[in-house]
Amino acid sequence: MSDLTKDQIRQNVRNRYKQIALQEVNAGTGCWTPSSCCDSPTEISSKLGYSAEELSAVPEGSNLGLGCGNPQAIAELKPGEVVLDLGSGGGFDCFLASRQVGETGRVIGVDMTPEMISKARANAAKGGFSNTEFRLGEIEHLPVADQSVDVIISNCVINLSPDKPQVFREAYRVLKPGGRLAISDVVLTAELPPEIKNDLDAYSGCMSGASSIDELKMILEQSGYTRITIEPKDESRTFIKDWLPGANIEDYIVSAIIKAVKP
């Protein structure tokens, strides 16, 4: 990856999710893979920890079967809170969060793919979600005011950024004092083989951009966060193995719950 610029990586990621938003390819587990074409988004999300009630509570078309966990389930959201979703896609996690924060709360989704923003806004209108809005922007440069957010959620998106320290600095900027992170993402458990590490499609597929737990802890500490916990989920190997068939990718990455607080 060293010979690729950050912008080349972003463009490749943006194009992948543009295609998914336009349904030019089938959405699949974690980040799209051909092997998962036979699973519906509902079946995939069930494996990621979403309940049947959650899956039936969102507008049709908002669940694209993406992600590696269920961040709003770990966020302990309260009525009246302001929630920010980094990489909001079709709006799935935003709509679930909006039910928890209620009419007095607000949910903001940020995504760098225009087609995803259009899809999410259409889904919000279809479902009557008046407390939810979607903004076009990069998670490294959030279109969100300083100290305006109570909780930041994200589902298997930060690994896609070529500048993770900048993502967490921006998250810190927009969080209120006492604000918290509740993130599902993948982490490295072993060094990736060169053929995966240097594969741009593996990067946009949520694999080769993963960081180690120690690296993420260091980034979070340097950004100013406290009460940092990163909890790997070994059971996630059961669906991660399908992301890159035949490569034993589950031996190198797992899903994890990442939590931290801005003091």
Automatic annotation (TrEMBL):
NCBIfam families, alphabetized: PRK11873.1
Domain Methyltransferase, first and last residues per copy: 78-224
Protein name listed in UniProt: Arsenite methyltransferase
Upper classification of the organism: Bacteria, Bacillati, Bacillota, Bacilli, Bacillales
Catalytic activities: arsenic triglutathione + 3 [thioredoxin]-dithiol + 3 S-adenosyl-L-methionine = trimethylarsine + 3 [thioredoxin]-disulfide + 3 glutathione + 3 S-adenosyl-L-homocysteine + 3 H(+); arsenic triglutathione + [thioredoxin]-dithiol + S-adenosyl-L-methionine + 2 H2O = methylarsonous acid + [thioredoxin]-disulfide + 3 glutathione + S-adenosyl-L-homocysteine + H(+); arsenic triglutathione + 2 [thioredoxin]-dithiol + 2 S-adenosyl-L-methionine + H2O = dimethylarsinous acid + 2 [thioredoxin]-disulfide + 3 glutathione + 2 S-adenosyl-L-homocysteine + 2 H(+)
Gene Ontology molecular function terms on file: methyltransferase activity
Top EC class, one word: transferase
UniProt keywords, alphabetically: Methyltransferase, S-adenosyl-L-methionine, Transferase, Ubiquinone
Gene: txxe 3536-arsM
Family, as annotated: Belongs to the methyltransferase superfamily. Arsenite methyltransferase family.
